[in-house]
TrEMBL record, chain A:
Protein name per Swiss-Prot or TrEMBL: Iron complex transport system ATP-binding protein
Organism: Gracilibacillus halotolerans
Domain ABC transporter positions: 7-243
TM annotation in the entry: none
Pfam families: ABC_tran
InterPro entries on file: AAA+_ATPase, ABC_transporter-like_ATP-bd, ABC_transporter-like_CS, P-loop_NTPase, Siderophore_ABC-ATPase
One Gene Ontology cellular component: plasma membrane
Length: 272, 343
């Protein structure tokens, strides 16, 4: 049912005020895959994500969706195809879960028409996917961090876009909730074919959950591909400046980065 | 499973929607009652049937004059000005996410007043010019606040403090104008400092009525966009809202209704400040409080004017009464913000 989309960026640079953060990046987002952007702090991960999702105008270069320049697509139409969950959206005071998720329906509504059954259906489905149906009539301020994040993602799902961008959806969450969120996003991708592009902080979770990785360093795209191809000791050294060894994850057989550091190095059964 | 959860979701939505409806209908009924009270009460109390006949064009000695020349204009001025202050204040508070950030506190109404007083006292211009300059005065004040509070990064605390400063300056300018103005203009001082419905006349009202009829629908139609803007700039953009355009349209429309109201009645103290929070508490979150805020504003002005006229031995202008209600709330908010370290 899901369409394939070609999402293509050609030589884009972008930044804030006079400061260029990302330089001359060209990429093609693989459709129906989970794509993860990795890189050190302040390397331009979020900037790249925002530029692709049209929150930031590139200073040069061109981004196209299905062959059409995204700057030429009307905002609401774009919002029906591409959704983005920002890193720290604001919770309106006293709002209930359903009403917040319902805001995701905005691009599907016009100036005069009210709430439709299609809206309720989309909200119900999004809430079921994120396992928050029983929270429907609760207030946001009564929820835990993990629950709140699921509500936000449900809002983005209610938008019913084929492409979903997420800016660090697992930050500030306990490890249990991080896994839960990533599992739910994987369900979404496998069941509906939603193309996911997200920034993740944790390189090992990225390696496990990503089908495809974009590695950024100082605003440039330095490597891309499947995790087993991208995640190598050389790359980690290059972009994070960290010495490490990469082993096979015993659970997922994806690459697992084991940092070396200066202490606690155990070799040949002898502490050095 | 899906049907069940759809029903569950709809149940909650319906309950909240009904609450919105109850609140709006009750406020409308209440407004109807106080509006009638404005027409019936006065130094002479006329029976309802007399007032109705007078309104329908019949001549009744005494009643005709009192209703047509005094009570009706007073009621209409209060109704429209209150509605304008209510929605305008609510828009500012919602957009800036702070109840303190409203036209009364940050000096937008004072800017409109200053322009209006200047036109009336110094230039002796016509009504139309007064209305237009009060709008310009309001917009220029917004621009000044924006420029002075911009800094390196936007801070709502700074905006509020800059606004309070600008308001103080404008208030002293108004006092100066009234001092250099002609003697007969001095009684008008109270109107321009706290707002009053005294001396409202039918021929002063068209700009306000027209302004509310044009801009209030624009604001109400943008309510959906406003509720998305509440989620923050990025979320709003990714949901397809043209944030800059929406914000500009909302600010200009709000300033227009507020300035026109100010030009007609003076800056009736704290109505723009109180209406939004009261309306929001009544309807609960998640539903647009724009119309309820307007209705609360109109109710507040008319009820306060009735209190000012009849509750004491001396007649007080409406702004004094709303000021008495509003000031403690302002102090409460300042203390709360200070505790949270937002100022």
């Amino acid at each position: 049912m899901k369409l394939n989309h070609t999402f293509h960026a050609e030589g884009i640079s972008a930044g804030y005020n006079d400061r260029t953060v990302i330089h001359d990046i060209s990429l093609e987002v693989p459709s129906n895959k989970i794509n993860v952007i990795i890189g050190a702090n302040a390397c331009g991960k979020s900037t790249l994500l925002k530029t692709l999702a049209r929150l930031l105008k590139p200073t040069s270069g061109e981004i196209s969706l299905d062959g059409k320049s995204i700057s030429k697509i009307p905002p609401k139409q774009f919002a029906r195809m591409v959704g983005l969950l920002p890193q720290s959206p604001i919770v309106p005071e006293g709002i209930t879960v359903t009403d917040l998720v319902g805001r995701g329906r905005f691009p599907h509504q016009s100036l005069f028409n009210g709430w439709t059954t299609a809206d309720t259906e989309a909200v119900a489905e999004a809430m079921e996917t994120m396992n928050i149906t029983e929270l429907a009539n609760q207030h946001m301020d009564e929820l835990s961090g993990g629950q709140r994040q699921r509500v936000w993602i449900a809002m983005a799902l209610a938008q019913q876009t084929d492409i979903l961008f997420l800016d660090e959806p697992t930050t500030f969450l306990d490890i249990t909730y991080q896994i839960e969120i990533l599992d739910l996003l994987t369900d979404l991708n496998r069941k509906r074919g939603t193309t996911i592009v997200m920034v993740l902080h944790d390189i090992n979770l990225s390696a496990r959950y990503a089908d495809y990785i974009f590695a950024l360093h100082k605003g440039k795209l330095v490597k891309e591909g499947e995790p087993s191809h991208v995640i190598t000791p050389a790359l980690v050294k290059n972009i994070f400046g960290l010495d490490c060894t990469v082993i096979e994850d015993p659970i997922s057989s994806s690459p697992l980065v084991v940092p070396i550091g200066r202490h606690h190095v155990f070799q040949n059964n002898v502490y050095s | 499973m899906k049907n069940k959860s759809m029903k569950y979701i709809m149940k909650g939505r319906k309950r909240r929607h009904l609450r919105w409806l109850y609140v709006t209908v009750s406020l409308t009924i209440l407004l109807f009652i106080v509006s009638w009270a404005m027409l019936l009460l006065g130094s002479t109390i006329y029976p309802v049937k007399d007032v109705i006949s007078v309104l329908l064009g019949e001549e009744i000695k005494g009643a005709s004059f009192a209703v047509h020349s005094i009570r009706l204009p007073r009621m209409i001025a209060g109704l429209f000005a209150g509605f304008a202050f209510g929605i305008g204040g609510h828009i500012f508070q919602t957009m800036l996410r702070n109840p303190l950030a409203n036209p009364n506190v940050i000096g937008i109404t004072t800017g409109s007043s200053a322009a209006a007083v200047f036109c009336i006292v110094i230039l002796h211009t016509s009504n139309a010019v007064v209305s237009i300059s009060s709008i310009v005065g309001g917009l220029v004040t917004v621009l000044f606040i924006y420029v002075f509070s911009k800094g390196k990064s936007f801070s709502i605390g700074r905006l509020i403090l800059v606004g309070i400063g600008i308001q103080a300056m404008l208030n002293s300018f108004i006092s100066y104008l009234l001092l250099v103005g002609a003697q007969q203009d001095i009684p008008a001082a109270l109107r321009w400092l706290s707002g009053s419905l005294n001396g409202s006349q039918m021929h002063d009202l068209p700009p306000l009525i027209l302004g509310v009829m044009i801009f209030a629908p624009i604001i109400i139609l943008l309510g959906k966009q406003l509720s998305i803007l509440e989620l923050g700039e990025q979320a709003a953009t990714s949901l397809g809202v043209r944030t800059d355009r929406t914000r500009l349209l909302l600010i200009v429309s709000s300033v227009c209704v507020i300035s026109l109201a100010t030009a007609t009645t003076g800056p009736i103290a704290f109505v723009a400040f109180l209406s939004g929070p009261i309306a929001k508490r009544l309807v609960g979150a998640g539903y647009s409080a724009i119309i309820p805020a307007g209705l609360v504003g109109a109710n507040l002005v008319l009820a306060a004017d009735l209190v000012g006229q009849f509750a004491f031995e001396v007649r007080y202008p409406v702004g004094i009464i709303t000021g008495i209600i509003g000031a403690p709330y302002l102090i409460y908010l300042l203390i709360r913000m200070n505790r949270k370290g937002e100022l």
